[in-house]
Write a structure and sequence with these properties.
The protein is an alpha/beta fold. It contains 5 helices and 5 strands.
């Protein structure tokens, strides 16, 4: 029996990285909100990551996820232990996380550097968001402290 002041949380059963693709050589995980123009988005993502010296297929795991399902990252964090995790289009809460973070601001948490950004189609169409993404990626991969 639950008391009125107790909270009940439902944990998503689907792992966010369960069906991710890539070799994961540099332990970078990339989660992308699936959109209608997947091919153009993947091309854009590949170019952006290449500028940060990352090969999407070789250095990272890529998960393209529909927005309408709940996911969890807890088992992925324990099992895969990514060093960097880049998320496009999702909030931390949508991935079963209970922290808040500003978009385009890398955050060190749970042994991983996190970056949350808008969905790829939004970034590609907005020069300011491209600049913000590039600054964050430089901080994470080209000028790490």
């Amino acid at each position: 029996m639950l008391l009125s002041n107790e909270l009940l949380f439902f944990a998503a059963e689907k792992s966010a990285l369960a069906e991710a693709e890539g070799e994961f050589e540099r332990q970078v995980a990339v989660i992308v909100m699936k959109e209608p123009n997947t091919t153009a988005n993947r091309d854009f993502l590949t170019k952006v990551l290449l500028a940060a010296n990352l090969d999407l297929g070789k250095d990272a795991l890529l998960a393209e996820l529909p927005a309408d399902q709940p996911y969890t990252l807890a088992p992925d964090l324990q099992e895969l232990q990514p060093k960097q995790l880049i998320v496009f289009g999702f909030t931390p809460a949508q991935l079963g996380l209970s922290f808040e973070v500003k978009a385009y601001q890398p955050l060190a948490f749970y042994g991983c550097t996190w970056l949350f950004a808008d969905k790829l189609s939004t970034i590609e169409a907005d020069k300011l968001k491209k600049t913000q993404l590039w600054s964050a990626l430089k901080q994470m991969f080209l000028n790490p402290s």
